[in-house]
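This part of the workshop introduces the protein records we will be handling. To make this concrete, we reproduce a full record directly below:
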Amino acid sequence: MLTTMPLRHDSGHLVSLFENATEGIILTDSKGCILLVNPSAERMFNYESGEITGKPIEVLIPDKFKPHHKEVREGFYHHPSNRSMGQNRDLYGRRKDGSALPVEVSLSHYRKDEELFVIAFIVDITRRKEIEANVKRQQAELERISTEMRKLNTELETKVEERTMILKEALQKLEQSQAELSEALDKERQLNEIKSRFVSMASHEFRTPLSTVLSSASLLGKYTKSEEQEKRDRHIAKIKSSVKNLNDILEDFLSLGKLDEGKVESHTGEFDLGECIQDIEEELRPFLKKGQQIEKVYEGEAIVCSDKKLVRNIVINLLSNAIKFSSEGDRIFVRTNTSNNKLVLEVQDEGIGIGEEDQEHLFSSFFRGANATNIQGTGLGLHIVQRYAELLNGSVALRSKLNEGTTVSVFIPLQPAPTNNSSKTQTSSNEDDPGH
């Protein structure tokens, strides 16, 4: 068993600790008068040795906070406790020249001869604030780059070669920012992890369609004869498909950014749910693989009261995933039930499925299942679906087995259905029934 020897009660040790501590240490009495200040605190606030001893602690408080600080100090003296100050808000001190000093402060107390003494431990966080400001600038730059990429993408069909070079430059900026952000965010572990995953995924997902666009654009110039129109059409189709993939990636990024910034709000209104799903099916039909079919089943009221745009985005994300992760000839099922003022929406596929070890992470941003790494995607679809559902006070559930398919269920509370003649009941429908 290890034993330790007690430290001798040598005042020299205490003086050494006080004098050489890297944190600022200030001792005040029950009236808020400064009794002791260590050298670190004096340097921190730009005072000479002994210059603020005997002065009230408010000399180190910015002018606009002084009146309130006195009230807070007196409250602390009535109910003293060891604690940190500035939780969830910025805290500042006042240097000798009047400039503000961002700080973290921890308070401790003790009593001697029936008098209360307070010890303040102070840390200068100026460098940390500079790093946080740099992080915000980097985030703004990333958002600006993403916005420019989306704008440029709309003109890609007519300026393929020019747009490819611009996207490459933007990608290089994103990759370059990885090293810069990694150094600045060494104390922000979670944000750094998300950024690294984003850049890694973006590098892979952008390069694949861009390579296709470049190669197809190069080959188009070789087919100049009229009888080679079929070959030209084939490469044009590849370019269009790659452009769609790039647009889908950008849409996911922008959707996530808007959600994180709180810019997405729900706006409730009445709409025909079956008609909405039918429009989405027609929009996605060109992207169905050979032999794939979408079968629809509706139960309950046709007219629902919710946010049509958010519901539409949920369905598009789920159907796009089902198409992507299913094989040729597979069926995809869309089922809705609107009863008891609740919408239950299910999208089921017969695709590759998801392993049990991956299912708990599927709603995290940028997560890809182990069996989906070779299939193009951002890993944001289900995360965005969950965020949209939460905006509607709903929830999402998932069931899946490897090689047997996946079912995603979304539960959304609805406003009471209208009772006039515009409300109609939906029974069932499939892709050949245009009634919804």
Observations:
- Residues 128-260 form one domain.
- The two ends are 79 Å apart (CA to CA).
- The chain has three domains: 13-124, 128-260, 269-426.
- Residues 1-7, 431-436 have pLDDT under 50 and may be disordered.
